[in-house]
Amino acid sequence: MVEGFHYLVWYEVHESMESAIEREKRLKEWKRKWKLELIESSNPNWQNLYNMIVSLDSGFRRNDAANRSALME
Question: Is 37 contained in some domain?
Fold first, then answer.
C-alpha cells in the first residue's frame, strides 16, 4: 500500500441509503477479524476495486441518460 492512499477492497450494494447506513453501523461493531474474513471471502487477493466500481457507475449513468432521453421522445 502506498503511503497516503487508501484502496477499495470491499463493498456492498444496497436498495436504499437507509439500509446502507444501517449495515455500516452494524459493521462498525464487528471485530477486526470478522471484517478481514468478510473482505477475504470475496476479495482474497485484496485487489483495488475502485476502477471496477467507477466503470460500473459510469455505465449506469450512461444508461440512465439514454433511458431518460427515450422517455422524453
Answer: yes
Domain containing 21 equals 17-72
56 part of a folded domain: yes
Domain count across the chain: 1
* Contact assessment for residue 1 and residue 48, using Cβ atoms and an 8 Å cutoff: no
Q: How is the chain classified by DSSP, letter by letter?
A: --TT----------SSHHHHHHHHHHHHTS-HHHHHHHHHHH-TT----HHHHHHHHHHHHHHHHHHHHHHH-
pLDDT in tens, 57-68: 666 555 555 544
Q: What are the cell numbers at 53?
A: 466500481
Supply the Cα-derived Rg of the chain in whole angstroms: 17
Q: What is the pTM of this model?
A: 0.65
